[in-house]
Amino acid sequence: MTKAEDIESFIINSGLPYDIIAGGTWVLRPDSAHNAQICVKISDPIILFSIQMFELSPEIPDRERLFRTLLELNSELLHAAYALQASQVVLAGAHQLENLDFNEFQATVDDMCMALDNHFGKIAPWVSPGLKAATAQGDA
Hints:
Elements: H1 3-14, E1 18-22, E2 25-28, E3 38-43, E4 46-55, H2 63-74, E5 81-85, E6 88-96, H3 102-123, H4 129-139
Antiparallel strand pairs: 1-2, 2-3, 3-4, 4-6, 5-6
Helix pairs in contact: 2-3
């Protein structure tokens, strides 16, 4: 099997709904995690996992407290971390593709979902209205 076929088999075995975006790129839609979508992308020799959290606009209040909060929350994560990607706050993870097995794949997805489920209240003051609206619809 190719690396893309291996990853797609992991996705199918995870039981999560997903969409194929392009060859080697998928979007997972876990039931939890505040309706966030996890982008999974092969970028040989690694596989990238990411969730776009919110835009870091210049007028965002109390940036120092936000960054401190994200760094503190990172200490609770095993397979992912909060990071900045251009002007986006993201939750991201990466693994070597060559030796990735299903357990590592699932652990990364679970870690990201757990992070959003457990951390959302702490980062909510900075989250974009779009993600808050999706969250409110998901909680209804």
